[in-house]
Amino acid sequence: MSAGKYEGRTVLVTGSSRGVGALLTRHFLDEGAKVVGVSRGAATCGHERYQHRQADIADTDAVQQLFAALRRSGTAIDIVINNAAVLTSQYALVMPASAARSMVELNLLAPFMVAREAAKMMRKTKWGRIINISSMAVALEPEGDSVYAACKAGLTTLSNVLARELAAFNVTCNTLGITAIESDMLRQLPRDKIDAVVARLPLPRYASFEDIANVVDFFASERSGYVTAQTLYLGGVH
């Protein structure tokens, strides 16, 4: 049996228990990687190359404790997928401050903390890939998504600055803006609203997991060492 493309690599996936995170976890395992899955809930994946870490990465102390535990276990991270996110879609006039704060903490501060701690490991090995999962909301700016879209726009800027700071260590940092895909997050929104947003895309259809995996594999590839500070949106969004 031939080795997978990620044989010998260890991938950390946040939000690994469901949705896109669960699909990416399975994808990397299928391609030979070891995977560290991180979520607030219990593990939903059972595999000999999978280890689960239960943590609320919106808590900065929890992120530092997570990476301290990984170091103690001798686990070095090669690839990071900052996927975990929360969405409260409400008009600004009725958006609770607590909901806005939760989005900032999980959608922007948490990816920074995870990327920073992983980069400390990557600096030692002189190789790394950081891939941040963004959203079409940045470009399409749908009503009700002011804070969510702002966080995801900030994620792109975060990626671009980190790409400069980490380039000397052979660590790349890129962003993938995904369109609507069947997931728990999507199911909490009115389907007619999502259908209307998708209809505005140059390629007006829902994303498949293969669409997402294609770009993730490109950014994570050994051959993409000269690709950094890039944002790629699916569906023709720009």
Annotate the secondary structure layout:
Blueprint (H helix, E strand, L loop, with lengths): L9 E5 L4 H12 L3 E6 L10 E5 L5 H13 L6 E4 L14 H29 L2 E8 L1 H4 L5 H21 L4 E8 L5 H4 L3 H9 L9 H12 L10 E3 L5
Parallel strand pairs: 1-2, 1-4, 2-3, 4-5, 5-6, 6-7
Helix pairs in contact: 2-3, 3-5
Pfam family, one: adh_short_C2
Family: Belongs to the short-chain dehydrogenases/reductases (SDR) family.
Organism: Rubrivivax benzoatilyticus
What does this structure look like?
- By secondary structure, this protein is an alpha/beta fold.
- The chain has one domain: Rossmann fold, CATH 3.40.50.720.
- The chain has 8 helices and 7 strands; from the N terminus they run E-H-E-E-H-E-H-E-H-H-E-H-H-H-E.
- It has a 7-stranded parallel β-sheet with strand order 3-2-1-4-5-6-7, with helices on both faces.
- Helix 3 links the parallel strand 4 and strand 5.
- The longest helix is centred in the middle third of the chain and has 29 residues.
- The protein is globular, with a radius of gyration of 17 Å.
- The N and C termini lie far apart (41 Å).
- 41% of the residues are buried.
- The model has no long low-confidence stretch (mean pLDDT 94).
List the main descriptive attributes of the protein structure presented here:
single chain; 238 residues; alpha/beta; Rossmann fold; seven-stranded parallel beta sheet; 8 helices; 7 strands; globular; SDR; SDR_fam
Structural class comes to alpha/beta
**Low-pLDDT residue spans:** none
Largest sheet: 7 strands, parallel
Oligomer: single chain
Supply the CATH architecture: 3-Layer(aba) Sandwich
Number of domains: 1
Rg from C-alpha positions?
A: 17 Å
Helix content, binned percent? 40-55%
First CA to last CA: what distance?
Answer: 41 Å
Order of helices and strands: EHEEHEHEHHEHHHE
Helical segment count: 8
Beta content:
15-25%
Spatial strand arrangement across the major sheet: 3-2-1-4-5-6-7
- Give the name of the CATH superfamily: NAD(P)-binding Rossmann-like Domain
Write down the CATH topology: Rossmann fold
CATH class: Alpha Beta
Number of strands: 7
